[in-house]
Design goal:
By secondary structure, the protein is α+β, with helices and mostly antiparallel strands. It is 25% helix and 32% strand. The chain contains 8 helices and 22 strands. Strands 1, 3, 4, 9, 10, 13, 18, 21 and 22 form a 9-stranded mixed beta sheet that branches. Strands 2-12-11 form a 3-stranded mixed beta sheet, with no helix packed on it. A two-stranded antiparallel ribbon has the order 5-6. Helix 4 runs antiparallel to helix 8. The relative contact order is 0.19.
Length: 292
């Protein structure tokens, strides 16, 4: 099967969507530091994966616990195979086996996600939380807590090894091409309307801007060049990686009116509506599998 990769970089807008370890009574957002100590919040790739699997609408692969105490490991069951569970077809598995010479069975991820990193810096905003409504019913003192909050644009990239979906040499399995296409297209449908439930909120993670395509390479093409400044997509940076073999196969989805340079984006990139870019990508995926 010919080498083929799908790469899609997405921008969405969300608020306080992934917390890490708290300090005292303060819930802390997951953050990284860049430049001169500027802090950016992020949603981990594991969190994105969890939401995609949760909303994919396919059976979840069974898991089991091995060992005991601090050495207990939770892993996928031996009977979990890619023909039954798209989850491990997409994101791989590691199954350890006692006394096995090979150490067990493993499959690398064929769908790879980056962290969703904020495109606007975190300024240290805090939300003051109480249970006053409940405490008043008992005429008791209320509990007080704080949580970091940050509303921002976020960017992440998904890359898919199309030529390796539905193939598992560990179990000598290969699925029909029609099933491979169905699975990938269902994942694209999930990404197009992705959301995340957290702390009583439902955050909308569906794309406001998306750029990518199906290529003869597997590079996450636009991962490091899609950025926003003053509510404008930095088009020149995107054009900087538009090699001839990439440009012809690249499409850009845009929600009109969200960014301040809509016209510049439309003049320089191959812009279509958001539903249309996902329709195009699904057509490219189906065409690839039909031709192999």
């Amino acid at each position: 099967m010919k080498v083929k990769g799908l790469a899609l970089t997405v921008i969405f807008e969300a608020e306080s969507a992934n917390y890490g370890e708290g300090v005292g009574n303060v819930a802390s957002l997951k953050k990284i530091s860049r430049n001169k100590g500027d802090q950016y919040t992020y949603i981990s790739r594991q969190a994105l994966r969890y939401n995609m699997i949760e909303q994919l609408g396919e059976a979840e692969a069974p898991v089991k616990a091995e060992g005991s105490g601090e050495k207990k490991v939770i892993q996928f069951s031996a009977e979990a195979t890619i023909d039954k569970y798209p989850e491990i077809d997409f994101f791989g598995y590691l199954k350890t086996e006692k006394k096995a010479a090979s150490g067990g069975k493993k499959r690398s991820a064929k769908v790879r996600l980056s962290n969703a990193i904020s495109l606007e810096t975190f300024k240290g905003d805090l939300d003051f939380l109480t249970n006053k409504g409940l405490a008043d019913r008992l005429k008791e003192n209320m509990n007080i807590a704080q949580a970091e909050i940050h509303r921002s644009y976020y960017r992440y990239t998904v890359t898919i090894d199309l030529d390796q979906i539905g193939i598992d040499k560990e179990y000598d399995l290969e699925l029909p091409n029609s099933e491979k296409a169905r699975r990938v297209n269902k994942l694209l449908d999930t990404i197009s309307v992705l959301y995340r439930d957290i702390r009583g909120r439902r955050e909308d993670l569906k794309p406001l801007f998306a750029i990518g395509g199906v290529y003869d390479i597997k590079n996450p093409v636009f991962q490091n060049v899609v950025d926003i400044k003053n509510n404008k997509i930095l088009v020149d940076e995107i054009n900087g990686v538009m090699f001839d073999n990439i440009k012809a196969d690249t499409y850009c989805g845009l929600i009109n009116g969200k960014f301040d340079n809509d016209n510049e984006i439309k003049e320089n990139l191959n812009v279509v509506s958001m539903p249309e870019i996902f329709s195009i990508l699904k057509g490219k995926v189906s065409g690839y599998y039909e031709g192999n």
